[in-house]
Amino acid sequence: MSMFTILFVNFISAVGITIVAPILGIAGQIFEVDQGYAMWLMTGFMMAYASFMPMIGRMSDNFGRKKGFIASASIFSFGLLLSFLSNDFNIVILGRMIQGFGAGGILPVANAMAVELYQDSKGKALALVNATYGLGVVVGVNLGGIIYDHLGWKWMFIVPFILTLIVIPIAVSFLKETLKFKKHEAIDYIGSILFAVAIISFMFMMKYLAVAPFFSPEVLIPMIGMVISFILFVIRELKVENPVIDIKDFKNPSFLIYSLIAFFFGFSMFLFVTFLPSFTQTLLGYGVSESVYAIDPFAIAMIFFVMLGGILIKRFGARKSMVIGALLFSIFSYLFVKMVDDGPSFYIYSILLASGLGISMTPMNYVIMEEGGKEKQGVSAGIASVMRSLGGIVGPTIAGIIIANVDFSSIFVMDNLIEAYMKIFSISFYSTLIQVALSILGLFAFRKILIKGGIRNEKI
């Protein structure tokens, strides 16, 4: 029952991320606000989601997984209810931010609990968590479109709220506490706030970079804020006794390498997931609903290969599995760019693309949590998720700049758009090459450490 509860809550939180995706293009009309402000339905969620993950992970390391998990689910539930009850768009956005704060605690704590519940099959347990997360992301997009068409936007929040209302009492009654030794150390709230300010400033900088010149005040002000808050954050974390993120962990080559892999993985993954639907609208002439459903085979294949990734970890070890996944992701990213020119080729190569993406997802989390140490698995899982989310911000922002530079007045606008999409997917391919290089580096760096220590372990 514990694992079912973890997976179900994780699934619902993932649904909450993307359930508004189908209405983002028309949200300005729905809520009668500027379309740029309407995008805060997603921006507000992601801002809170990424900003407080390490802090919530650290709190679960200190005070217990069960408390952290239930508190995060309850906060997420309250945010859903708030967005449902209000007709004021500002309150709806506030609700989305609260949802992001709660969801930001669910995934890292779910990863930590899964590992602690199944010590002998950690790879498979992490794969289950990641697979249900991926399934939730896909279901959220599809469910959101169906709910909006038949019931209206308010029900996009109340349906997941009802589900959380059912599962939270189950978690209270049946969820097992997996953390054996609670430390009750002080939480570095000032460091958490500085980290959140750095992330928020970064998001604003990337947001305006897509529409304003680099040296404009809209870009420079958040950039300066990001640099200052990040420097202050690092200084503080090096001084305090119980940092929210232990900067010294990044001196560990494996921890640093696989954190960077998580960033570039997020970069590539979110480029494909975000732009494949609109790419089908341009290449295949699909409508909005058809384009959403067009990526379902890709998503289903990804979930299958996430589970396969867990099996590969058991067979070959996390580091070798990461190399396999990164190589497949890179090869099929290249083939996608070179070979896709019609419907059949799109479906074939998007499914192949999902193989590398899915296999890669679990090993990086596994290594980061392993290298962070058993006493910090919650915060380590949070760092992995933050790095992936940051990559997911940078990639689509760069893609947005490319799309913004398309000449829509040209008679060759469709050809220009297809060329722009191929540039976006080519950039994603270059990102996968970096993942391959880093995963090979991580494998040999770890092998070198083992040999120096006189240890032989084939599953590395």
TrEMBL record:
Region forming the signal peptide: none
Keyword Oxidoreductase tagged: no
GO cellular-component term (any): endomembrane system
Organism whose genome encodes this protein: Kosmotoga olearia (strain ATCC BAA-1733 / DSM 21960 / TBF 19.5.1)
Start and end residues of each Major facilitator superfamily (MFS) profile domain: 2-434
Name of the featured protein: MFS-type drug efflux transporter P55
Keywords: Membrane, Transmembrane, Transmembrane helix, Transport
InterPro entries assigned: MFS, MFS_dom, MFS_trans_sf, Sugar_transporter_CS
Subcellular location: Endomembrane system
Main location (coarse class): membrane
Residue stretches spanning the membrane: 7-31, 37-56, 68-85, 97-118, 125-147, 153-175, 187-208, 214-235, 255-279, 291-313, 322-340, 346-368, 389-412, 424-446
Membrane topology label: Multi-pass membrane protein
Pfam families xrefs: MFS_1
Entry GO MF terms: transmembrane transporter activity
